[in-house]
Write a structure and sequence with these properties.
The protein is 26% helix and 34% strand. With 178 residues, it is of the alpha+beta class.
Length: 178
């Protein structure tokens, strides 16, 4: 069986996954490599999207986990879940650029929703998306998320989140009932 036909498997990330996860997240959002897929932020931000410290914090968070999606042992996607009372925060969602557009992201999102609802008892899944990412927001709306009109400022001056290429970036909170 080819790796394309192999079943997608999910597992919690561990410390040994940190370098591969940093590379995955960076490839999905930043630099020329990210332009292969459709989730690039390269026109909005330069610099890094994450680092080993940030990924390690997500993995070790006492009320969260980072899910890894693999096919035939190859890391293809990941996401972060964090339990916040009866709401689960969804973040660090990344799919290899060359694997985007084929349903893999949808499968990861559905698995994350299942974990949040069935294992944590969460009533809602929430996330933040850069407001200027209309294509990405539309993708989430097609999957049941709704725009809240609640905005959070972009952390200008904190290069851990990237180097903005424009002065008007901000995050919008999206919510989905589970």
């Amino acid at each position: 069986m080819s790796s394309e036909g192999a079943e997608l498997t999910f597992r919690p990330a561990g410390a040994a996954d940190v370098p591969a996860l940093v590379a995955l997240v960076e490839s999905a959002y930043r630099g020329d490599a990210s332009r292969v897929g459709w989730t690039t932020e390269a026109d909005l931000l330069d610099g890094r999207r994450t680092d080993a410290e940030g990924v390690t914090e997500a993995i070790e968070h006492p009320h969260g986990l980072v899910l890894v999606a693999e096919r035939a042992g190859r890391l293809l996607a990941c996401c972060q879940l964090e339990r916040r009372d009866n709401v689960a925060y969804f973040g660090m969602f990344s799919v290899r650029p060359e694997s985007q557009g084929g349903g893999l992201g949808r499968a990861v999102l559905e698995h994350a929703e299942h974990v949040a609802r069935e294992q944590w008892g969460a009533a809602e899944l929430e996330m933040t998306v850069i407001e200027q990412r209309a294509d990405l927001i539309a993708w989430y709306e097609c999957r049941g998320f709704r725009r809240t009109g609640v905005y959070l400022p972009f952390p200008y001056g904190d290069e851990r989140f990237g180097i903005p290429r424009r002065p008007d970036l901000r995050f919008e909170k999206l919510v989905k009932d589970l």
